[in-house]
């Protein structure tokens, strides 16, 4: 049995293609195909279903064995990092799952701090929804994931980062521009763009607290699309400050009611994580040292 074949199988499934896996691993496509076939022959079971229309999918036994294969690969990565640490030669890779606003507003700060101390550690990033990040953590595709507390598997180890406040966003020529704080009741008759994606529950909680129902004009899943619609004056919205403050040609204001999403880094088990992952989480703790850290709560009044 070969660890190399485990790596090849994992890459084929991850990329959904023998060709892409071969390019990534610097191998020929025939070598990749032979490695998978030899593993199937050794085990006496088919692991992949090859279909020209549907692409590559796992068989039932393939689905059952893949998590264990990924765990073996993760353990080997940990062993290599421990050896490198003992010989003062840093090596390793950290796989991080992240959502859009964390990628643009939190991740760069962490990476800059970490790579000053550990320039030889490599990173691989996967961007998705809360649910996808949770699934990637559970299946071992990623080592660490940006999550929102209460939206993730409670068995994960969490490192709290920030409390991301919900704010209202509107067109620069909207009447809200001259107000410092927006009352939830002021939103009742506004054309409202309701998010149907990751932070919808936080927005709905605010309206429930205010005991009002918004006049929903549009229901939109994609965060960037929502911001673009606000830019065009199609309505107002409520969402996380971390994301909305980065969008051009819109204005944001605080609400009279508060609601936060608690952003954290999640790991299946810190005690079993590789040295590089443990060090990254330690750096995150130091960067976001305040237990109730929030992003800039002073929203410009202009």
UniProtKB/TrEMBL annotation:
GO CC aspect terms: cytosol
Q: Superkingdom of this entry's organism? A: Bacteria
Ranges for domain HTH lysR-type come to: 1-59
Keywords in UniProt for this one? DNA-binding, Transcription, Transcription regulation
Quote one Gene Ontology molecular function term: DNA binding
Record keyword DNA-binding present: yes
Q: Does the keyword Zinc apply?
A: no
The record's annotation in Pfam families points to:
HTH_1, LysR_substrate
Per the similarity annotation, which family is this? Belongs to the LysR transcriptional regulatory family.
PANTHER family for the chain: HTH-TYPE TRANSCRIPTIONAL REGULATOR CZCR, HTH-TYPE TRANSCRIPTIONAL REGULATOR YBHD
**What is the protein name for this chain?**
LysR family transcriptional regulator
State the organism of origin. Gracilibacillus salitolerans
């Amino acid at each position: 049995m070969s660890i190399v074949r485990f790596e090849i199988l994992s890459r084929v499934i991850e990329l959904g293609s023998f060709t892409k896996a071969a390019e990534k691993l610097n191998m020929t496509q025939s070598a990749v195909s032979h490695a998978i076939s030899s593993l199937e022959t050794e085990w006496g079971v088919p692991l992949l279903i090859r279909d020209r229309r549907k692409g590559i999918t796992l068989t039932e036994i393939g689905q059952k064995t893949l998590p264990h294969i990924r765990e073996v690969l993760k353990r080997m990565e940990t062993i290599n990092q421990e050896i490198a640490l003992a010989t003062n030669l840093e090596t390793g890779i950290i796989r991080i799952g992240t959502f859009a606003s964390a990628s643009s507003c939190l991740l760069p700060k962490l990476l800059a701090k970490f790579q000053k101390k550990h320039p030889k550690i490599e990173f691989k990033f996967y961007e998705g929804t809360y649910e996808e990040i949770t699934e990637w953590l559970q299946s071992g595709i990623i080592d660490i994931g940006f999550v929102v507390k209460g939206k993730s598997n409670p068995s994960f180890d969490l490192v709290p980062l920030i409390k991301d406040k919900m704010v209202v966003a509107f067109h620069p020529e909207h009447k809200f521009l001259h107000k410092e704080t927006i009352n939830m009741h002021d939103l009742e008759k506004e054309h409202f763009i309701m998010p149907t994606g990751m932070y919808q529950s936080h927005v709905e909680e605010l309206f429930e607290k205010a005991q009002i129902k918004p006049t929903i004009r549009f229901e939109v899943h994609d965060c960037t699309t929502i911001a673009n619609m606000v830019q065009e004056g199609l309505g107002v919205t409520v969402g996380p400050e971390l994301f909305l403050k980065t969008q051009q040609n819109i204005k944001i204001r605080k609400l009279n009611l508060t609601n936060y999403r608690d952003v954290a880094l999640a790991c299946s088990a810190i005690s079993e994580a590789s040295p590089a992952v443990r060090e990254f989480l330690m750096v995150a703790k130091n960067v976001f040292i305040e237990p109730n850290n929030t992003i800039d709560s002073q929203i410009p009044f202009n």
